[in-house]
Amino acid sequence: MSQTWFQHTFSRKRFQTRNQATAMAILGIAVLLILGSLYLTNVASFAITNREIEDLISRRDQLKRQNEQLIGEIASFRTVPRLFARAAEIGFRPAANSDIDYLLIEGYS
Question: % helix / strand / coil in the chain, to the nearest 5?
């Protein structure tokens, strides 16, 4: 009886089934770990890319504000009173009637 019980308890097929089940479980866990690491890598890459995009958008907005400020500053330099003052600074003056010469060209209407 003990020999039959021993053979039945420790039969080779039973160990093979357990070994296969264990191997499949380990393989499944390994596949899940690999897929999980790939997922985390993609998510981290996506987060880094989004952060870079946000930085670029904020930089673009800052440059737009600076550009608008410069446009306003340029417009203030182009006002007529400012242009007259600058012209006087560099030596220009309003023309008098004696400073104006007219040319008559024949055939030009």
Answer: 80, 0, 20
Closest alpha carbon to 88 in 97, 80, 100: 80
Per-residue DSSP letters for 4-30?
HHHHHHT-HHHHHHHHHHHHHHHHHHH
59-92 pLDDT, tens digit per residue, is: 999 999 999 999 999 999 899 999 999 999 999 9
* Cβ–Cβ under 8 Å, residues 76 and 82: yes
Tell if the pTM clears 0.90, that is, is over it.
no
- In whole angstroms, what is the distance from residue 105 CA to residue 108 CA? 6
Per-residue model confidence (pLDDT) at position 39: 97
Residues in the chain: 109
Q: What are 92's two structure tokens?
A: 């220009």
Rounded CA-CA distance 80/76 in Å is 9
Residues 6+ apart with CB under 8 A from 76: 82
